[in-house]
Specification:
Blueprint lengths: L3 H19 L5 H17 L4 H7 L6 H14 L2 H15 L8 E10 L10 E4 L8 E13 L3
Antiparallel strand pairs: 1-3, 2-3
C-alpha cells in the first residue's frame, strides 16, 4: 500500500530542514519567511507571491498573506541576503563537482501591446537601446555543465 501522506510530510520536512540551513545566523522573522517561501514555491510550483500565498493555506485573508510575504521580501537588507546566499551555496556545493560550470540566462519577453495576458508585469526591455518599461515577462534559465 502506498502512503502518500507520509511522503508529503517527509517532503515538507526536507523543505523545512533545507530552509533552516539557509537561514542560519538570521533572526526568527526572516527564518519563518524563508520557510514559508520555500514551502510555498515547492507546493505552488510558481514564483508568483499570490500563488505562493494560496498554497500556504493560512487561516487569514489571502490579501493579508500576500502583503506579509511582500513586506518581508522588501524588508530584507543586503547583509541578510548575502548571508542567505552564502548559506545556500555552502549547502548545494556538496551536490556538484568542483569542475562544474553554472550558466544563467536572465532575459525577458516583451508584450509591448499586450493588456490582458495572465501574470503580465512591467519589465525593462533589455533589447531596447532606450531601456523602456513595457509589459512582459522576466525569464531566467539555468544550466549546469559537468565533465559527464
Amino acid at each position: 500500500m502506498i502512503n502518500y501522506t507520509v511522503d508529503c510530510y517527509e517532503m515538507k520536512r526536507e523543505i523545512l530542514n533545507f530552509s533552516k540551513k539557509m537561514s542560519e545566523g538570521l533572526n526568527k522573522k526572516v527564518t519563518n519567511f524563508i520557510s514559508d517561501m520555500k514551502y510555498g514555491l515547492s507546493k505552488s510550483k510558481s514564483c508568483l507571491i499570490s500563488e505562493i500565498s494560496k498554497s500556504l493555506d493560512e487561516r487569514v485573508k489571502l490579501k493579508n498573506t500576500i502583503e506579509r510575504l511582500y513586506d518581508n521580501l522588501q524588508s530584507l537588507d543586503k547583509e541578510e541576503t548575502r548571508l542567505m546566499k552564502e548559506n545556500y551555496l555552502n549547502e548545494v556545493k556538496n551536490y556538484f563537482p568542483d569542475e562544474a560550470i553554472f550558466i544563467f540566462d536572465d532575459s525577458d519577453i516583451s508584450k509591448r501591446y499586450g493588456k490582458k495576458f495572465e501574470d503580465l508585469d512591467q519589465i525593462i526591455e533589455a533589447s531596447d537601446p532606450d531601456k523602456r518599461v513595457v509589459n512582459g515577462y522576466y525569464i531566467c534559465e539555468a544550466v549546469i555543465l559537468g565533465k559527464n
